[in-house]
Predict the structure of Putative WIYLD domain-containing protein.
Amino acid sequence: MEPSRRPLKVKGGSRMDAALDAMTALGFDKKVVHQTVNKLLKVYGSNEGWVFIEDGDYRLLIDQLLEAQQQDQVTHSLLLLFILQATHTTYIV
C-alpha cells in the first residue's frame, strides 16, 4: 500500500498568488513582492492585514514597493558617488 500524501495545493488560488499576479503584471519582481507582502502582514496582522493590502487595488502594496525602489536607487547613487570619489582622488606632491 502506498503511503498517503498531502493533497497538492492548487496553484494560483491564494491571496498571495493574487497579489503576486497583480504586481508582476505591473513589472515588480516576484521575490520583492512576496517579501513586501510578508512585511505588511507582520505590521497589520496575518489575516486581518489582507484587507489593507487588497484595498484600493493593492495601493498600500504598490506604495511600499515604489518606496523600496526609490530607496534602492538613492542607495545605489550614493554608493556610485562614493566609488567615483574614492577612485578619482588627486594626490598633491
In short: The chain has three helices and no strands. Helices lie at 15-25, 30-44, 49-87. The chain has one domain: 15-87. The first helix runs from residue 15 to 25.
